[in-house]
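Why predict the complex rather than its parts? Because the way molecules touch one another can change local conformation, and only a joint prediction can capture that. The input here totals 450 residues.
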Amino acid sequence: MTNRRSPYRIAFFVATVATCVWLSGMKLYAGAQTNTEQKPPAPAVRNSGQKNGEEVFMQNCSRCHKPPMTISPRVTGTVVMHMRVRAKLSRQDEEALLRYLAP
Amino acid sequence: MKIWLLAGCLLFCTMKVSAQDADNETTQAGYVPVISGAVGYVDSINGGTSTLLPAIDPVLLIPIGSHVLGEARGEFTGVFSRRNGNGDYTGQVFSELDYAQIDWLADTHAMVVGGKFILPYGLVTERLDPIWIDTFQNLPLTYSAGTQTTGFGVGGELRGVATQNDKFSVQYSAYYSAHSNASQFGSAHATGFDASVYFPTQRFEVGTSYQRFMDDPRHINNEAVYISWQPTHLPLDVKGEYDQSYYGLGYWIQAGYMLSQVPVANSFFKNVEIAGRMQQSFPDHGGGHGVPGTQTERPGVALNYYIRDNWRIISSYERSFTSAKDANLWNIGFTYRFVWPLWPGRK
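Output of the joint prediction:
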């Protein structure tokens, strides 16, 4: 007896996974939108030896593009990592940005 | 059965990656996979020929902890123009993997990049090229001088901040790219570096790029010098670049001004940007290889309106003067930038 795998099973599986990812993404997106209704938080208090996150934000983001007015804390770490690579920021700048955007 | 096992492993790995959510000890920042990027649509008219250019450029970001990041950008661009000049629109959609790289944030001064990456050359390739950033949708005439043959490299790159204090910072990147003809991973044999000094108080940057292109029968050198200035007391953005290669040289300089200082109807004008750009290119050794084959002058203006910080209406006009033919270049359209989480975080 030939153990043939039905192509419909694969298609059904792929469709199920895609639907789950899509639905969770929509739910997350809705949550993120709710979170991003607020403007960036007030700058964190500058501690001794720490850079001011608002300064880093305004000085570096505007070198290339209009700084974003809103960003969800949920994605802040990932986005700041990406921007650290792209804008060649130091670790101190990265930490200052994280304190400013997601205190 | 195998496919279920494979899918289970993939989902488990994804959950593990998401579960990193390695919040910094002192912040609420979340580290979840993210899909970002931009959507754009431009109607481009070049010398009377209209071309519709819809585009989607998604960027996938997958953090592994807080020191390793996997990232990739795709580019799906449609090019549609009228058949025989006045018939129905026809064309096709081009898809390309721009870059796919692993970033290791090794140290405060150094980051290591491996995979397919953007060649760091001048201001445009890494910084102004995304459709949601660039003030003018037409690339500068000398854009291709340091981006042969695809604008991307396959190999390794070291980048970061060499030194930094309150007065200035020195940033650098150096890379080596192997020749590759692999599908979606095409690149040229090249090596080079980029270095810039940024003065944060003045918000002024000056930098230089060098590339040795080794795919050509003769190894050629490409050089660029650039400036960027955003004065603190004016909503002004000035950028300029000079490029030189074996095949020609040229420059572009542009200034963008947000009309936020207009006293009347400020809620409207604060979102309006006007910009001007001047560029010239001069061929050498016959030009080509991305440099125009004839001397070209191209002044232009742009008018952009930011509906939100991530959504704007764009328009521009440029006049191209060459010994062969002068032409008008019009662009009008919109761009939209998005950032969406792909997995729940703890926050």
